[in-house]
Write a structure and sequence with these properties.
The structure is a single chain. By secondary structure, this protein is mainly alpha-helical. Helices cover 58% and strands 3% of the residues. It has nine helices and two strands, in the order ββααααααααα. It has helices spanning 25-45, 48-51, 59-84, 87-92, 107-125, 129-153, 184-205, 214-231, 249-271; strands at residues 14-18, 21-24. It has a two-stranded antiparallel sheet with strand order 1-2. A hairpin with a 2-residue loop joins strand 1 and strand 2. The longest helix has 26 residues, at 59-84. The termini are far apart. Mean pLDDT is 88; it is low at 277-281.
Length: 281
């Protein structure tokens, strides 16, 4: 049966090395995700038909916002990991909080960091919070896809043990048990990245950006669903294990997203699309 297992590719931890400078796969995923997301956001803002008129923000504003959202992702993601996943360790080793190169980021924390960045930037620049949230979440699956691929390359956050007869089961080099496991990082890349991006892109084509909050709500709802589905194949963090009734921390943090996302979608539908200037009221 072992012949059916797929050998885990032997990736080097460093993606790019120039002299004394080295960029790891995880850092490269963040960099590429932010750059590609920024370019995609600019392309959406240039298409007035998607918004039913002029976009609610300028290209210069979205350029400035990139720094804000980057800080939100990094600070929120690290803070979320410290609080949600490994607080006792960081209480005993506070200096480790700043060693980002060792890994340890939380999507839910990063998302909350983005929410703060969106609200703060929108308030300071007189932009609709919901519309800025729409454009931010429309591009977010790009970063999620690259981040999960980086998890796979690093051989971390592997899946639960499975039968060796599963054709794509893998044994991860860093797994002390050396059991065949689901490559759950790739499952999550497909659901949180490709599937979520595709659904949101279709919604945008159908005019969802004309209803502020619609894309934001859809992102939150669908991500919550895909994360909960992915958690059924992902091995829980060793320091946490399974929680009540077999739930994982990722599941618990995703449950409120289902409620919030549903509420935002309902409100966007009821609010309707804004009428263009000069329309009969």
């Amino acid at each position: 049966m072992q012949l059916l297992l797929i050998d885990f590719p032997a990736f080097k931890p460093i993606a790019l090395e120039i002299g004394p400078f080295a960029i790891r796969w995880y850092a490269l995923a963040y960099i590429c995700g932010i750059v590609f997301g920024w370019l995609y956001a600019r392309s959406l803002l240039k298409k007035e038909r998607l918004w039913g008129g002029p976009a609610p923000m300028s290209l210069l504003q979205i350029d400035d916002f990139i720094l804000w959202v980057t800080l939100g992702i990094i600070l929120g993601g690290r803070t979320g990991y410290v609080l949600f996943y490994n607080l006792p360790f960081f209480i005993d080793h506070p200096a480790a909080i700043f060693r980002l190169w060792e890994g340890g980021m939380s999507f839910h924390g990063g998302f909350l960091g983005c929410v703060v960045a969106v609200m703060w930037f929108a308030f300071r620049n007189g932009i609709s919070i919901l519309s800025l949230g729409d454009i931010t979440t429309a591009v977010a699956p790009v970063g999620l896809l690259l981040g999960r691929i980086a998890n796979f390359i690093n051989g971390e956050l592997w899946g639960r043990a499975t039968d060796a007869s599963l054709p794509w089961a893998m044994i991860f080099p860093n797994d002390p048990t050396q059991l065949p496991r689901h490559p759950s990082q790739l499952y999550e890349a497909g659901m949180e990245g490709i599937l979520l991006f595709t659904v949101l892109a279709v919604m945008i084509r159908l005019g969802a950006l004309k209803r502020p909050g619609m894309i934001l709500g859809a992102f939150i709802l669908i991500y919550g669903l895909t994360r909960i589905a992915g958690e059924h194949f992902r091995e829980p963090d060793a320091q946490l294990g399974f929680l009540w009734g077999g739930l994982t921390m990722g599941m618990l943090l995703s449950l409120p997203m289902l409620i919030v996302g549903g509420i935002l979608i309902v409100l966007a539908v009821r609010r309707g699309a804004p009428k263009p200037a000069g329309a009969v009221r």
